[in-house]
Amino acid sequence: MILTINCGSSTIKYQLFTTDVTRVVARGIVSRIGETGSCFEQEVGGRKVQEVTAVANHHQAFEICIRNLLHPEYGAIGDIHEIEAVGHRAVHGADLFIASTLIDDDVIAKMEECVPLAPLHNPPNLIGIREGLALLPAVPHVAVFDTAFNQTMPPKAYLYPLPYRFYQEHKIRKYGFHGTSVRFVSQRAAEVLARPLTDLKMVVAHLGNGVTMTAVAGGKAVDTTIGFATFSGVMMGTRSGDIDPGLIFHMRRQLGLTPDEIERILYKESGLLGVSGLSNDMRTITEAARAGNARCQLAMEIFAYMATKYVGAFAAAMGGLDVLVFTAGIGENSPEIRELICRNQEFLGITLDAERNALAVGGREMALNQDGGRTAVLVVPTDEERMIALDTMRLAGVG
Ligand code: ADP
């Protein structure tokens, strides 16, 4: 079997797949590690167990995961050696990793080098890798980087027009995120359309709490909205997305806000929450908008308008558009947002079938375009864990 691990600062999520990655055998999460109210949940074959238990650190959290996977009553395996390979989600691989890779000491050292670029995410990823290696030293471990898929962007797309030394000396450039999701979704979209991925110009709209729009031409990322940090592009739950950087100086000098306050405002208090004044959750906002809340209606319109502009920009960047794919929480579940994004886009060949759009909720894979529409419009549910497991199967030579 293949174990996937997604290790964050206070959570560990894991899934156990059959070795051929056709089936998920178990999935679980340890949350609030090192905090009060730590919690463990696991689901095996439809049976859920949940427990509030003290979890002081990641080491303990891993022990809990393995103990529960091996549990005689509600576990999934009888022996730890049934795990043949482990796939780790890794957030930032900078320009050092252009693809997933088998983990060795050199890979770990290079991931350490990337820590300054992702100080919140890479350290817990590294803890997960070290703990995983200690628990399962005899099997191959694979790192799957969120940034790797976007490494095919050309310099004209990834370079900021700053003095060149910032790129040379400080690695300041666009990296992009959600690459594992976009890779999975773009490959699956080609399968659904029964067309070679190499022939297709796609825009993938990953619309979740974090939002990424990516231009994928011939299966390769050519541009993406999130840049150096996890901030630019379309507005998100609490992040503003694109703003005029001059605003930051205005907030600092004229409004007297400190850099920390400005950062908090732009990352935690803006986006859907900031405009609506109500919530960062698209479900709550949609319900309130239906009930006549004008600010929630406006938040939805700005969100969709920013996304629509990138569909157009990326179609222009690729010199055409064959497929628009929606994925992640909002993309898979919100007919309203999809309708707003696709409205008046006939000139790009985008025509939405209202009935199909209304039916595409709850993670259904569907085509939404009208019959004969020049551009395919799809919903493809994302599955980053499956992508990690597939890479692990391939690189570990199992399955
Ligand atoms: P993350 O980026 O944290 O993985 P998700 O992909 O789970 O996030 O997306 C979370 C977003 O999806 C939230 O804004 C949530 O409101 C939205 N969402 C989930 N279900 C629906 C729904 N039925 N209608 C509208 N939005 C939804």
Give a short synopsis of this structure.
The chain has 399 residues and is α/β, with parallel strands linked by helices.
Q: How would you characterize the largest beta sheet?
A: 8 strands, mixed
Task: Kindly provide the radius of gyration, computed on alpha-carbon positions and rounded to a whole number of angstroms.
Answer: 22 Å
CATH topology of the largest domain: Nucleotidyltransferase, domain 5
Shape: globular
Q: Structural class given helices, strands, pairing?
A: alpha/beta
- What's the name of the CATH homologous superfamily of the largest domain? ATPase, nucleotide binding domain
Query: What's the architecture of the largest domain in CATH terms?
Result: 2-Layer Sandwich
Main sheet: strand order = 5-4-3-2-1-6-8-7
Bound molecules: adenosine-5'-diphosphate
**Integer average pLDDT:** 96
Q: How large a portion of the residues is in β-strands, by DSSP E?
A: 15-25%
Oligomer: single chain
Distance between the termini: 8 Å
Name the helicity range. Answer: 25-40%
CATH class of the largest domain: Alpha Beta
